[in-house]
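Narrative progress, year one. The postdoctoral researcher (J.K.) led the effort to move from monomer predictions toward full complexes, under supervision of the PI. The following entry was the first complex the group processed end to end, covering 873 residues in total.
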Amino acid sequence: MKLLSAISAALLLGALPFFTSSNYVIGVAISACIFTAAAAALNLVYGYTGLLSFAQLGFWGIGGYATALTVMTFAGSFWLGLVWAALIDTAIALAIGYPAVRTNRHAFVIVTLAFALLVTLVARDWVSLTRGPLGIPGLPAPNLFGFEFKTTPLFYWIAYGYALLALGLLYALCTSRIGRTLVAIKQNEPLVRAQGISPVPYKLAAFAVGAAITGVGGGIYAFHLKIIDPLFLDFYYMQTFLIIVITGGAGSYWGVIAAGLIMSTLPEVLRFSADFRMIVYGVVLLLAVLAMPGGVGGWLHERRLARARAGLT
Amino acid sequence: MEVDAAYLAQLTANGIILGLLYALIAVGLALIFGVLEIINFAHGELLMIGAYAMTFMLPAVGLLYWPSLAVAMAVVALCGLLMYELFLSRLRPGEFERSILVTLALSIIILHVVQYAFTASPRIVDTQYGFDGWTIGAIRVTWTRIVGSGVALVAFVFLYVVLNHTRFGRAMRAVAQNREAALMVGVEPKVVARNAVALAAALCGMAGAALAPIQLVSPIMGQALIFKAFALIIIGGLGNVPGVIAAAVGLGLMESWVGGFFEIVWQETAVFVVMIAVLLLRPDGLFKQGTMRVG
Amino acid sequence: MTAVLQIDQLCKSFVGVQALAGVSFAIEEGSITGLIGPNGSGKSTTIDCVSGFQTIDSGRVLLSGKDITGRPPQAVARAGLMRTFQTVRLYERFSLRDNLTIAAQQFDAAGWVDELLRTARYRDAAAAAETRASELLGLVGLSRYVDADAGVLSYGQKKLLALAAALMPRPALVVLDEPVAGVNPTRIREVEDILRGLNSAGQTFLVIEHNVEFITNLCRRVIVLDQGRKLAEGTPAEVHRDARVLEAYLGLTPETSATEMQGAT
């Protein structure tokens, strides 16, 4: 049932450029696709596996810069850039993830935070590679065998296709036994080990998949903005991913997708000033964490549980 | 490389002063982590509130330093209390990730409220000491910096006394070491936690107020400093007060020396790389012996 | 009769405390052995060391002849030792069915690729696990809760579920850490019957308990630890009469022991 409504919604969204000719609306939809996929990736790492990873921001930035540099400095295609984004992010995720997942939870959070900040510093300071604070402007439209994705509607289908692939991969993963094992690790890691399962490969896999998906998303977003600079690593993006995951429900696949679509479009609908929007974000996050720690997805699950419990006694 | 002794001495003096201010910020974070086991992401904003309070108080009292400092500290301590009562007290121990999200949310809210109300333009504020300073030989230090570090030193001595020789201090150390055991001997964790947050906030407010005349005050000033404070509590050891102070002074010195001789550019990166390395190799910090050692 | 578990001179100290000072014993295949001792004698530490949850200072642990000394918990489990915990460990948000099938997954032939693509190999393994799970749930009397979240169970029921989970992969040895502590007396009889039944079908058990009556009824052999060493070993009756044991537990001399034993437990 859920899957059916999801497929119909997906088809509708795919046809969006046929319903509107407003570049603004389509632009918002592009952001929605990319942020939702990136948030879903964070959900895999945090919601399912229980690892609060600020590193996603770093992978986002590395993905954006890798794609941009592939095209602008190394004369590769946009698609090759995305491949590089995924590969580099996966490699870094494995390298830094291996020691990180084996430390305690406090250290893990701070290491990932430090990593994200380190990436920001490198983006700003390694001027010879990244062109520093000036950034890399003028990113061209993606080109596929001569066909240029020049207009916003055409670009939309790249973002949409990415979101479908990413969310599809995550669906396969989350509903599989691998996904179940991740949730088990989050709930009771000592028990998982006592049952013969080694948590480290699972944590690493989730971390790497999350990194790759976020990196590709970053690459596509950079080319949507047509410029990349250190501001691409602004903490605002991390906050956005976090808010989507928390309000949708950490560990709830569909909750996070719904929250992603809503949270991406809501600010546009409400048209607040930048500061006010951030205040609203902060308040929403605060309320969600305090009052509904499981997000909307969790709240629905609790209701189902209560009904089941009532049926048992 | 020709090293001018006087120049080096000047850098060292600046470094120590900077380090003491870093220590004020980091010690507050360490206290909160030791007693509540949470990392207060809103700590930088508490500092920023202290700085803003200072910028408003000083003109109001004819640029008198001490009353303004006292008021700024009180304001921030109050904010800390509010933060605890309204939000932090709802968190149960062991909810580490949730606490990060709560304090992160608070940090976003506070920062943007201040920015909304007072704009992002940096402010400068003057004190009764103006730009007068003290000169020994070739070294010159302004009064505002001397007073700032003097205040910090007094605060650390005070903190040492509180932690080691008062009931409240011992209660804090007890809760930090073993919450259940502390409960059993009649210590009330919530009261201890609330007071620890207020104390940490007051220290932070002091740091912010001391910084206000020294550097530009802006809504984002807390953000830049807070990540250094995180680095310090990691390197010094989560909850290890003297370790953190040592790390802080070390950082101040390193920044001052590196800044004086090399490009500042890679210095921040170096700090973070060291932090990550320490975390991965020794999650309990360089100075070992975790929970709330006080000397 | 081969030794399923062999422990030689196990030593472990924590800061300033020598928890284990050379523990040695062996568990025969098909036996049901009790491990008892006063508080602080080292029972839990022994089990934690054997199952990999604590590092070992010196000594050797052999499981079915394989050296598992100092191996991490997941390796010990894969070698054939499953354990339960004093504070019941379950996946509170998973159904009972999931709680059980996950305990078997490391032991089947399906790998990550199989799991992701839902190959035939995975489906067969999952079906086999489901069958065994139903069987065990029936054994412990929890079949009607198969789809309920483990969190809704009572404390005693949770202990039974943990036992069932430990049995899923048909391990060489099941170590039970205080299986009836805090469980109400009527339930304790039930647990005794279940364990006896499983043991007569060939499952080897090592049971740590404070409940002397439970151990006496259930175990043919009892090992007594005191202050990090094996103090005595024998049938429950032999151990009851052992002067050293009485002294360690109750501070009794042989003269007073007879009358005091009436009130014990």
